[in-house]
Amino acid sequence: MFFAWDITIPANTPATAPATEILKLTKGVITKVDVKFPAGCHSLAKVQLLRSEFQLIPLNRGEWVTGDDESVPTAGYYELKEAPTQLKFIGINDDDTYPHTITVRITIL
After folding, report:
1. What is the distance between the alpha carbons of residues 74 and 102, in angstroms, rounded to a whole number?
2. pLDDT tens-place string over residues 30-60
């Protein structure tokens, strides 16, 4: 199964008031997550994915995934034992002028 979301993080979105989105999923095993950053982000838009306040992506707590005109892939094996289930997207944007739309893609077996 494949899930995808486009999530816009407004300009000047600080870590103290991040953009959040609940990503609804089904039971299974997450085998791949891609976070796509459009051109122009210049690593100013930053993303974390959490499950029950446990940070999954990136795994090092308190850090962020960033990029510019690239997709950041992660492979792994994370079991979701209940349906429905959810992850929480958290995004901040240090860009004082432009919002940035981040695409999150999740593959579940």
Report:
1. 15
2. 999 999 999 999 999 999 999 988 999 999 9
